């Protein structure tokens, strides 16, 4: 179904567009919204459950968000606190969507899975203890547990301990962690959007060009089924096409796009779905980053719930690629993205990140034996026959003209907008999908502020995201945080059985 000359065009059917479209339609029901997706099905690239870690990133277990100790031995946990609060906004909105009947069956997209940080070696044990002391002192992480006792850690996650040598180990755990199927969630929200008056969703449609007009944007679209090309227009365009965002941003020609480049990194998982092994592991376990590894390649041993079935995934293993999308990409994506305004940034990345390039090549050439060797640092008794290798998604690490020596955005997300706020594009890395509601709220506040100007609109937004205009971080907000956290927990049916 097409909406002729909509107010808003959404490019891509992943979690970003899904959240933005649903929020916009709730804020102003009369808005006309059209979504275009290049794949034949919705949410098949970065949001597909097999193409991401499925971690409800709340800063609990990801050591890359708190990587270093200060000279006095303490650990700065401010990033983790910020990410936790942003994920709370995601939980609130998704919980509201369930409570209001916009989407159903929350167990199909979110499930309770404890989050564990696990380290070995005395230096890392000391680091994790310092991290725990800093985090547990904040009310967001008051329930965090820390242990160096093997019997305790074995109770949390027996695969980590059984068969391990005498090297010191430590772990932290919070049982309130989650596993999220962002693909399922995206499809549910977009189906709700498609059912609303004045909204259209078109799959197997590729947006091929964008041209600025006096009233917004002319958008060229190719219907891949009928093999026909047509044009439409909108006052506002959101490019949430995952790895495909950069080429479209470049085609827009906005000055703000100059200097941006993309560095694609492929991924692979080791997967075990043997019920006897899966039953022994109920946790997402994040470990120490490997030297030169990008943020998205920090190893973790994860319980996943995909389409109602549990499995254990380990990885991701990074790989060199020139594609920007896993299924809809082409080997020419990277070379065709090189422009005069970003070639210096790309060359700088190559010159100053030779260890990263070497790491990616080595990762791509790994044997199954070398992958199993890394797995056994988490799961000492792992047997090769129990695991299979599957391809994960592609992450296009954004490259900025001015970003220190390297130019690569390893952490966070870039929202690029033009000066008139008529177009916005999403580039960047983890935590991405988990904080998508907060990111889309930023898009609305920056690009469509008139949607929030009236008291009625502000009241609607408070219903969608109760804490959107307040901070839950301060000590005075402890009771408010507990109230909202408990409410979303019940709405999303996250109580542990």
Automatic annotation (TrEMBL):
Its cofactor is FAD. It comes from Novipirellula caenicola. Pathway: Carbohydrate metabolism; tricarboxylic acid cycle; oxaloacetate from (S)-malate (quinone route): step 1/1. Its EC number is 1.1.5.4. SUPFAM superfamilies: FAD/NAD(P)-binding domain. Signal peptide: none annotated. Pfam families: Mqo. Belongs to the MQO family. Keywords: FAD, Flavoprotein, Oxidoreductase, Tricarboxylic acid cycle. InterPro entries: FAD/NAD-bd_sf, MQO. This is Probable malate:quinone oxidoreductase. It catalyses: (S)-malate + a quinone = a quinol + oxaloacetate.
């Amino acid at each position: 179904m097409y909406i002729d000359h909509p107010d808003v065009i959404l490019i891509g059917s992943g979690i970003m567009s899904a959240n933005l479209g649903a929020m916009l339609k709730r804020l102003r029901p009369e808005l006309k919204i059209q979504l275009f997706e290049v794949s034949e099905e919705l949410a098949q690239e970065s949001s597909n459950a097999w193409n991401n870690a499925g971690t409800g990133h709340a800063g609990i277990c990801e050591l890359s968000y708190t990587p270093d100790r200060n000279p006095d031995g303490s650990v700065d946990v401010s990033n983790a606190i910020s990410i936790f609060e942003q994920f709370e906004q995601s939980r609130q909105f998704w919980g509201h969507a369930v409570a209001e009947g916009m989407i159903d069956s929350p167990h199909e997209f979110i499930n309770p899975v404890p989050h564990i940080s696990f380290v070995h070696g005395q230096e890392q044990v000391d680091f994790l203890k310092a991290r725990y002391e800093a985090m547990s002192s904040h009310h967001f992480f008051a329930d965090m547990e820390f242990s160096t006792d093997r019997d305790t850690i074995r109770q949390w996650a027996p695969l980590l301990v059984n068969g391990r040598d005498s090297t010191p180990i430590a772990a932290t755990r919070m049982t309130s962690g989650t596993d999220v199927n962002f693909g399922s969630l995206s499809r549910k929200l977009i189906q709700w959007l498609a059912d609303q008056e004045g909204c259209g969703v078109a799959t197997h449609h590729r947006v091929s060009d964008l041209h600025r007009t006096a009233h917004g944007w002319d958008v060229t679209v190719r219907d891949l089924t009928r093999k026909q090309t047509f044009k439409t227009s909108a006052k506002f365009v959101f490019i949430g096409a995952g790895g495909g965002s950069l080429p479209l941003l470049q085609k827009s020609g906005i000055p703000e796009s100059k200097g941006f480049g993309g560095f694609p990194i492929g991924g692979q998982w080791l997967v075990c779905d043997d019920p006897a092994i899966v039953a022994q592991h109920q946790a997402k376990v994040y470990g120490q980053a490997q030297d030169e590894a990008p943020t998205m390649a920090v190893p973790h041993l994860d319980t996943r719930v995909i389409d109602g079935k549990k499995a254990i995934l380990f990885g991701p293993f990074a790989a060199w690629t020139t594609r920007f999308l896993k299924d809809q990409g082409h080997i020419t994506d990277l070379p065709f993205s090189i422009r005069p305004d970003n070639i210096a940034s790309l060359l700088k990345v190559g010159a100053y990140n030779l260890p990263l390039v070497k790491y990616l090549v080595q990762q791509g050439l790994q044997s199954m034996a070398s992958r199993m060797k890394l797995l056994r640092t988490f799961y000492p008794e792992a047997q090769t026959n129990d695991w299979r290798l599957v391809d994960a998604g592609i992450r296009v690490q954004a490259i900025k003209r001015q970003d220190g020596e390297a130019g690569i955005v390893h952490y966070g997300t870039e929202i690029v907008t033009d000066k008139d706020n008529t177009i916005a594009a999403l580039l960047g890395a983890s935590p991405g999908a988990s904080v998508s509601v907060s990111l889309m709220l930023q898009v609305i506040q920056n690009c469509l502020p008139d949607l929030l100007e009236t008291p009625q609109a502000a009241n609607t937004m408070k219903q969608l995201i109760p804490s959107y205009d307040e901070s839950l971080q301060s000590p005075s907000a402890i009771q408010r945080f507990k109230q909202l956290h408990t409410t979303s927990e019940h709405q999303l049916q996250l109580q542990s059985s």
